[in-house]
C-alpha cells in the first residue's frame, strides 16, 4: 500500500496539531502482513502522543503483542477514541489520558491514573512532539522556543521522573528523536535542537539506569506521513514530502512502530543507549 505515496501526496494543509481524518491519503497505522509473537503479553505500556501518527501505530502494535496501553494526547479526541477503539478490538485495554506533557503536574497525574487503572507500568514510550517551521532564527519567538522545548524534551524528563518508581528490572524506555538531530534542518532550528537533546538524553539516561536493568534507546525517524506534516508545512511542501529520500517516498507510521517494538522487547536485551534510524535510506553518522 505504501507504493501509492512514491510520487507524493495531494497538496493539503491543516491547523495544528492536525488530525488523521482530514489527511489524503490516510496514514497507514498497521502492517497488513504483521504477525504477533506475543512479546508483551500482560505488559502495560505508556505512549505519549499516542492518538495518531507514529504513536498510534506504536500503541496498536503493542496491543497486537498482548499489551494493555495508556495513551497521552493533547487535544485530538476523535483520533484518540479511534485508536482506543482499535486497541479494544484487539482484546486489550486502553486508557486515554488527555493533557499537556509539557506540564510536570500533568505527567505525574497521568502516571498515577495509569497505576490506578493497571497496577503497574512496564514500558514507557516518550513520543510526543511538535514543530513550527520558520524561515529565519529571527522569526522564532520566545514563546515558540519555550513551547517546543517544553513539549519535546522537558516532557521526557517529566514523564520519566513520574514513571521511574514503577519500572522494574527488564523494563524499557524508548524515545522518539529525528533524522534532524543528525542532519539539521534550516527551517526547523528549534525542533532540530530538541531532537539533538533527545539523543543526548537517551544516551545519558541509558547509562544512568543500566545498573537497574532498565534499557533506554531511541528511534530517529525520517520523513513519516503523519498529521504533523500537513499541519506544519505549506501545501507545496506536503506535495513533495519524503520524495527526496533514497527510497523515493515518505515512510508510514507502522514502519516506524516496528522499531519501538524491537527496542522494547527482549530481542534487544543487549542494546541500550542506541538510536535506530528509520529514514528511507538517508545516510547519518551517529
How is the topology of this model organized?
Layout: E1 44-48, H1 53-64, E2 68-73, H2 77-89, E3 94-98, H3 104-118, E4 123-126, H4 142-163, E5 172-176, H5 180-183, H6 189-209, E6 215-221, H7 235-239, H8 253-264, E7 275-278
Parallel strand pairs: 1-2, 1-4, 2-3, 4-5, 5-6, 6-7
Structure notes:
The chain is an alpha/beta fold and 286 residues long. The chain is built from eight helices and seven strands, in the order βαβαβαβαβααβααβ. It has a seven-stranded parallel sheet, with helices on both faces. Helix 1 (53-64) runs parallel beside helix 2 (77-89) and helix 1 packs across helix 8. Mean pLDDT is 91; it is low at 1-6.
Fraction of residues in H or I helices: 25-40%
CATH homolog superfamily: NAD(P)-binding Rossmann-like Domain
**Which geometry do the CA atoms define?**
globular
Strand content: 5-15%
Largest sheet: 7 strands, parallel
Number of strands: 7
Q: Flag low-confidence runs.
A: 1-6
Oligomer classification: single chain
Counted up, domains total 1
Which CATH class? Alpha Beta
Distance between the termini: 31 Å
Strand order, sheet with most strands: 3-2-1-4-5-6-7
The CATH architecture comes to 3-Layer(aba) Sandwich
Summarize the structure.
The chain has 8 helices and 7 strands, in the order E-H-E-H-E-H-E-H-E-H-H-E-H-H-E. The protein has 286 residues and is of the alpha/beta class.
Index terms:
Rossmann fold, 36% helix, 286 residues, alpha/beta, 13% strand
Amino acid at each position: 500500500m505504501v507504493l501509492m505515496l512514491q510520487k507524493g501526496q495531494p497538496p493539503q494543509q491543516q491547523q495544528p496539531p492536525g488530525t488523521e481524518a482530514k489527511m489524503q491519503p490516510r496514514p497507514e497505522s498497521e502492517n497488513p502482513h504483521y504477525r504477533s509473537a506475543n512479546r508483551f503479553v500482560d505488559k502495560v505500556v505508556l505512549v505519549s502522543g499516542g492518538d495518531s501518527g507514529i504513536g498510534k501505530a506504536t500503541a496498536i502494535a503493542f496491543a497486537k503483542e498482548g499489551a494493555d496501553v495508556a495513551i497521552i494526547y493533547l487535544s485530538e479526541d476523535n483520533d484518540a477514541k479511534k485508536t482506543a477503539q482499535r486497541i479494544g478490538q484487539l482484546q486489550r485495554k486502553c486508557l486515554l489520558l488527555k493533557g499537556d506533557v509539557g506540564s510536570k503536574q500533568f505527567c505525574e497525574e497521568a502516571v498515577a491514573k495509569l497505576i490506578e487503572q493497571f497496577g503497574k507500568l512496564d514500558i514507557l514510550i516518550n513520543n510526543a512532539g511538535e514543530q513550527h517551521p520558520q524561515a529565519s532564527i529571527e522569526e522564532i519567538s520566545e514563546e515558540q522556543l519555550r513551547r517546543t522545548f517544553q513539549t519535546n524534551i522537558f516532557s521526557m524528563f517529566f514523564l520519566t521522573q513520574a514513571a521511574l518508581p514503577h519500572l522494574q528490572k527488564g523494563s524499557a524506555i524508548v524515545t522518539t528523536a529525528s533524522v534532524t538531530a543528525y542532519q539539521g534542518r534550516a527551517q526547523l532550528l528549534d525542533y532540530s535542537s530538541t531532537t539533538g537533546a533527545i539523543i543526548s538524553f537517551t544516551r545519558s539516561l541509558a547509562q544512568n539506569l543500566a545498573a537497574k536493568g532498565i534499557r533506554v534507546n531511541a528511534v530517529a525517524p525520517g520523513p513519516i506521513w503523519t498529521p504533523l506534516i500537513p499541519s506544519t508545512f505549506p501545501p507545496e511542501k506536503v506535495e513533495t514530502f519524503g520524495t527526496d529520500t533514497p527510497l523515493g517516498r515518505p515512510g508510514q507510521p507502522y514502519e516506524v512502530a516496528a522499531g519501538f517494538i524491537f527496542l522494547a522487547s527482549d530481542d534487544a536485551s543487549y542494546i541500550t543507549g542506541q538510536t535506530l534510524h528509520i529514514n528511507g535510506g538517508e545516510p547519518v553518522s551517529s
